[in-house]
Amino acid sequence: MPRVATNFRFLFLLFWLAAPVAMAATQSPVDMWQTFLKPKYFPDTAIVEDSTVIELSTPYRAEDAAFTPVTIRAKFPQTPERYIQKIYVVVDNNPDPLAGVFTLTPEMGRADLALRLRINDYTNVRALAVLNTGETHMVVNYVKAQGGCSAPLGSDFKAAMDRMGTMNFRTLGAVNQDHTLVGQLMLSHPNVTGMQKDQKTQLIRPAHFVKSLKIFLDDRLIMEAETGISISEDPSFRFFFKPSTTGALRADVIDSKGQSWSHTFKVSS
Fold this sequence. Notes:
Blueprint: H1 2-26, H2 32-41, E1 47-49, E2 54-57, E3 68-74, E4 84-91, E5 98-104, E6 113-117, E7 123-131, E8 136-143, H3 157-162, E9 167-172, E10 181-187, E11 210-217, E12 220-227, E13 236-241, E14 247-255, E15 260-267
């Protein structure tokens, strides 16, 4: 009998010691959005989670976590009466969750955007559209990807630095019935996250990334972006605009070290 009691006490002690571990294992992970991100970026904002304003397309499992394609499509055209004023792109579990804030105008015609993100861990990716009326709508997709923010650069670092600031612009397809045209701006920049190792020295490279992008058409600002380390190396942005007969599209870029570049491209309808 004493032996049975001793065995029982021993088993009880094991259970008592293991219980906190078991409870911790069954607890839900912290909701980054509700706990930290919404209070920080949208503290007093009523957000409607639906797809009546924008749609978000992302891969469920990214082929390359450092170059994850993201497409945002608007459900209605940009008009002076009703338009999407800002789009926020948020990657919940990234070290810097706010990937970009895009300020849009009616002159774009449509508020569609396409870009590439770094995804550092399995996460929700959010797109939030703020209308000129003050409404805020959100769509959320879950993406399986890991290591995008610490992944080595896809090209030689010295070569990437040598071509930094080089820009290319092209139009895709013909002019649409609503007189809009799709443009794609491609910028050479390593967009160093501050989490990547130099392959020779094994030291962490300091963060160095594109911070600001402004797009002008005939000297009128049509789109502005504030971006961070979650944007991929060699950023690429696709967007709509309404070209004029002899238009000039200008891109002004500033990075986190204060370096700046500007390039003008001829576009016409």
